[in-house]
Amino acid sequence: MPGKIHILKAELANKIAAGEVVQRPASVVKELLENSLDANATKITVIVKEAGKAFIQVIDNGEGMSPDDALTAFQRHATSKIATAEDLEAIRTLGFRGEALASIAAVSQVEMKTRQASDETGFQLRIEGNVLKEQSNVAMERGTVVVVKNLFYNTPARRNFLKTRTTELKNISDVVTRTAIAYPGVTWDYVSDDEDLLDLKPKAADGRLKDLFGDRLVESLVNVHEAGDYLTIDGYIGRPNFARKSRAEQFLFINRRFVVNRAINHAVFQAYEHLLDKGTFPFFILNLTLDPHKVDVNVHPSKMEVKFENESIIYRFVLSTVRRALASNDGIPALSMQADATSGRTDERLRFSQSPSVGAAPSETEVVGRTPPFTFPPGEGLDQVDLEKLFGKIERRLGTETLRKDGEATFPADLQRVTPPSSDRLLQHRPMRAPGEKEPGQEGRAIWQIHNKYILSQVRTGLLIVDQHVAHERILYEQVLANFENNLPTTQQLLFPQTVQLTASDYSLVKELVPHLEKIGFDLKMFGKNTVVIEGIPADVRVGSEAEILQNVLDEFKQTEQKGTIDARDKLAKSFACKAAIKAGDRLTTVEMIVLIDQLFATQMPYVCPHGRPIVVKITTEELDRRFGRT
Ligand code: ADP
Ligand code: MG
Question: How far is 150 from 25, CA to CA, in rounded Å?
Fold first, then answer.
């Protein structure tokens, strides 16, 4: 009796396999473009008709093939790109699986013309449903032309499955665009139903982007370049105010191969932290260059997925690179005073900007402009702050390093080199000045506190407004996270340990959190019977309020717990930062303000607090000029 298992005929097997490689016209285009690029073409033309369903043609000026190779190329698993298992470990070409041409030929009518430079003539062939129908010599230039007609003519299910013409054409255009981004040195021509959609001359990367996206968009992007031992990142990211409603404009390339990778997307997204409104996504174009041994592209036949040998290294590198690029390129949302009723955030700033205290600000700004900035009266300990360094740093983070170049806003010589403060801890500059002492800002300094809530400071490009509470929150938050990493809490031991009576549930919560709390700088003894003795507190906590802060941190922790934050340490860091930070209403001395701003701009993300509120608002001089009719 014959068995019931049999091997499928090659033709059928190819059809089945084709399903994975060739899902739609755009996949054909992608595979053909990859072949042209692997053949080192410098000019590639794509012509489609009826969104590729009727006709796809790719013409290249690459290396071409010999007649024998041209015939072999349509066999399943026929490739010139890898030979051994070791080769598979380090893929350096876009193709390597040797199945694209076989798959395409299984589900369409294919014609190919090809010629190597060393051959007298070219060679052409016609294949239908994997069967060779015709072959002959042909006169042609070096290169290869592939024509794919009537895609899925023999797989009606597939054909019916295709989306509308618009959708399929968009998919093709996406493929061409991505490839053109990754290969700016190649000339591209892309024609759909006799309409020239792209005609791109070879350019440098930024020139290519301008051709594709327009000058204005590209000029608003932030350039990213970071070379590390493990990988190098190049590309562009959009400023937060340029966020998009979809992920469509996120281009990630690994060794110039367009890929989709959730982890890296997440890393980029994370770098923007709370700079983005809900439901918006950053624009980015990033190419990661890394040793091909360290990335596996043989995950799926479409080669759009990758697996990294060490994903976390890459994740962290992307995160920190993008973060730094954002922070150093004026990621501050500049305040436009044009009413924008759609955004609650802007609204709040608007109200602020219209309050009487700011109404008076411009004249003060004028005064400041003529006075040497930061001439402090003696006795406030200011000789201990390196002002030049501080404001150099802020201007750098604002991307306006021109501070000293034009000779206008330079610091007086006697202030240029001063010794650093004995301690950089903000709260150690307390207590506050004696009652009756002059308000800062009134002697024409370029830093003021208003309503004991906001710090105003002049920077080269305008006016900076900092919310003191969230600024300090950000500083503490990052300090705590650093403590978690480095194990270096700074504890101040209490002269008189505090005994705190907690509820049973808080007591067990503290017990659970003790290892983390210790890393923040708390020194706690679990006394039993729901009693905790606080023997030491973090260096930033005001002595006298330790019990209150511990209780507040616990409460805040429980609250954020309900909001479902996952990481306990992060939650704790946020809770602590929020509760230990200086509050709105706390009066600050000039030194405290300067130290605060200094520390703020030393953080990784000076613009948004851990809970997502903005820390800094900038009003540019242009905006002020515009408002005062000076333009
Ligand atoms: P792969 O690209 O994975 O090797 P393909 O089926 O796409 O598999 O192509 C098979 C082979 O045909 C390639 O390895 C290459 O040698 C040759 N080939 C395909 N397209 C071209 C082209 N445009 N120019 C030169 N050679 C080509
Ligand atoms: Mg290929």
Answer: 10
Q: Which tokens sit at 558?
A: 């429980």
Cβ–ligand 1 distance for 287 under 6 Å, the answer no
Q: Closest ligand 1 atom to the C-alpha of 62?
A: 24
Q: Which atom of ligand 1 is nearest to the CA of 34?
A: 2
Q: Which atom of ligand 1 is nearest to the CA of 143?
A: 24
Rounded Cα distance between 184 and 187, Å, is 8
Quote the pLDDT of residue 529.
81
| Angle subtended by helix axes 590-602 and 468-486, to nearest 10 | 50
Q: What is the largest CA-CA distance in the chain?
A: 109
Distance CA 604, CA 198 (A): 40
- Residue 332: predicted pLDDT: 52
Q: Which ligand is nearest to the CA of 104?
A: 1
288 close to 318: Cβ distance less than 8 angstroms:
yes
- The CB of 144 under 6 Å from ligand 1? The reply is yes
Sheet containing 616-620, strands listed edge to edge, beginning at the edge strand earlier in sequence = 447-450, 454-459, 462-467, 616-620
**Ligand 1 test: best mutation among 101, 130, 141, 148, most atoms within 8 Å of CB?**
101
Q: Residue 623: which of 350, 378, 302, 229 has the closest Cα?
A: 350
* Pocket flag, ligand 1, residue 330 (CB < 6 Å): no
How far, CA to CA in Å, does 327 sit from each of 74, 242, 461, 604? 51, 15, 16, 7
> Cis before residue 2, ω within 30 degrees of 0?
no
Whose alpha carbon is nearest atom 8 of ligand 1? Answer: 98
Atom 19 in ligand 1: residue holding the nearest Cα: 35
Those residues whose C-beta lies under 8 Å from the C-beta of residue 156, and which sit 6 or more positions away, are none
- CA dist 431 and 477 (Å) reads 23
Q: What is the pLDDT of residues 515-540, one digit of tens each?
A: 888 888 889 988 878 889 998 888 76
Q: Ligand 1 within 6 A of 62 CB?
A: yes
- Ligand (nearest to CA of 96): 1
The bound ligand whose nearest atom lies closest to the alpha carbon of 142 is 1
Nearest C-alpha neighbor of 350 from the set 360, 333, 334, 338: 338
Angle at 621 between CA 615 and CA 622, to 5 degrees: 115
φ and ψ at residue 588, rounded to 5 degrees: -115, 145
Query: In the structure, what pLDDT confidence band is assigned to residue 313 with cuts at 50, 70 and 90?
Result: very high
Strands (E), 69-186: 109-115, 122-128, 131-138, 143-149
- Please state the pTM of the whole predicted model: 0.61
Fill in the DSSP letter of residue 606: T
100 pocket-lining for ligand 1 (C-beta < 6 Å): yes
Q: How close is the Cα of 125 to the center of ligand 1, in Å?
A: 15
Q: Tell me how far the alpha carbon of residue 115 lies from the centroid of ligand 1, in angstroms.
A: 13
Note the pLDDT tens digit of each residue in 483-497: 877 766 778 888 788
pLDDT of residue 497: 85
- Residue carrying structure tokens 């043989």: 298
Whether 301 is in the pocket of ligand 1, judged by its Cβ within 6 Å, is no
Please give the pLDDT value at position 487.
67
